[in-house]
Write a structure and sequence with these properties.
The protein is mainly alpha-helical. It has one domain (about 1-195). Helices cover about 80% and strands about 0% of the residues. It contains 10 helices and no strands. The chain has helices at about 1-15, 20-30, 40-50, 55-80, 80-90, 95-105, 110-115, 120-130, 135-160, 165-195. The chain is globular and about 45 Å long.
């Protein structure tokens, strides 16, 4: 736990320097395939420091995350043994089994849910490459681009609109809010499917 806290503090320290946006891009890229600290931490700090640039920071974060996700997909597709090891490190011994179950039940929605919520997106990026016959790179990129952009624009937009006070609310309630959003989204699709039958 001390190591993770140290990484968290190190990530936050980048917000105070002139290279914060570059660090955000690199962090978002790395987190999508192997790094444990989500980029939201640095995104929030940068947006609070320069609220008018919040949406630009969100774009930098989304692009870095998408490219990192593609790298994760490549790891899973071309280096499956390394991919399985990374999934085990991120999600434990049953991580690949959970990803398999998620793909079997939800298909590309599994990627969208992991991309938007606090679930480990890196697990789904690497697993998508391992299961590339079930989810093509094109579908993966499209779903990831939409869901990751939505996540980071939501965070940045709230800070731009409400300023620094919303930072504490996002830090405290982001997990609950994002999971509630996904539950409502899935419920909406289930209802729509019921009406169409």
């Amino acid at each position: 736990m001390g190591r993770v806290r140290g990484l968290y503090d190190w990530v936050l320290s980048w917000a105070e320097g002139p290279h914060g946006a570059r660090a955000l891009f690199v962090l978002a890229f790395a987190e999508s395939s192997f790094f444990p600290i989500p980029p939201d931490v640095l995104l929030i700090a940068l947006c609070v420091g320069a609220p008018k640039r919040s949406l630009w920071f969100a774009g930098v974060c989304a692009l870095g995350s998408l490219l990192g996700g593609i790298a994760g997909y490549g790891i899973g597709m071309f280096a499956a043994d390394l991919g399985r090891w990374l999934i085990q490190q991120a999600a434990g011994a049953g991580g690949l089994d959970l990803a398999t179950q998620a793909f079997d039940e939800y298909g590309a929605w599994a990627v969208a849910i992991a991309a938007f919520t606090p679930l480990p997106y890196k697990v789904m990026t690497v697993a998508s490459g391992i299961f590339h016959e079930q989810i093509s790179l094109g579908v993966f990129v499209g779903v990831s681009a939409l869901a990751r952009s939505a996540r980071f624009v939501l965070v940045a937009g709230l800070i731009r609109a409400f300023g620094a006070p919303v930072r504490g609310l996002i830090d405290r309630w982001f997990n609950v809010l994002s999971i509630a959003f996904v539950v409502l989204l899935i419920a909406g699709f289930v209802l729509l499917k019921g009406f169409l039958q």
